[in-house]
Amino acid sequence: xxxxxxxxxxxxxxDSFHLGNYLGALKQWVDLQETRQAIYCVVDMHAxxxxxxxxxxxxxxxxxxxxxxxxxxxxxxCILFVQSQVPEHAELNWILxxxxxxxxxxxxxxxxxKSAKGGADQASVGLFTxxxxxxxxxxxxxxDEVPVGEDQRQHLELSRNLAQRFxxxxxxxxxxxxxxxxxxxxxxxxxxxxxxxxxxxASSPQGIIDLLDEPAAIxxxxxxxxxxxxxxxxxxxxxxxxVTNLLRIYSAxxxxxxxxxxxxxxGEGYGKFKKxxxxxxxxxxxxxxxxxxxxxxxxxxxxxILIEGARRARAIATQTMTEVRDRCGFxxxx
Length: 334
Fold this sequence. Notes:
5 strands, mainly alpha, three-stranded parallel beta sheet
């Protein structure tokens, strides 16, 4: 049986990834490169759907790549590149856009949420068509699986629909990808507002633990994390969302089941629990932070890894687009 291919991408829209990014995506990426043909992408073209500074984007793209490498991605076991280095993403985006209904695109909930904040009249066409470019990213590599968070299920369903629509109209070309979701870490909540997802755009600085945070900052944020007045350490999403979120984080980083952690802290207060959780996060993130900073001191090495990754990615992308162009009725390119 052939090895299944997995594709995923992440935006370089901040100076550091956060705990939610790590548990919801990056940790899975590292694990999947052991059992899948893994292709990972820093999606800088997605990052320009809102106003941005080119110099900041360039720096953050490199910082993002360094963090991915620092977290454990191995260029020998996966393909890592930057989206804009492979122009076939944009070409396939246009073709798929011509197969997508306006009403279909209008129903994407993320556009509704994001445009509501700044007003639909101020939203870019790129923000509106973002899910179509995301579909192009995935379908270009004929990925069998895509690691996604719950909030991306709708976008992945669009990718599946567009793959099937193209295949029906023009002949079997694309794979309709399956979602790869780990339910236990599908949603990591804001430490200060456990009803909300941990997010750079929505969370307060105290609600987010950054991958590149110093140990003292990590411990401080966990010590101040919202819990409740009850004092017992048990999972209950409705009654104890803050504690449940901390248990979910502890379980994901330690590998221990939530029930085992609950039993270990039976009769204990939140103080010891938070101290031990802080130590667990620091122990996990410190090597990643140190490796990232070391890579950033040798940025030419990072650039070389990305260029080689783009070369390998483009070998797949050009083969796909040769098929697509032929089936769409376009003449061959030189």
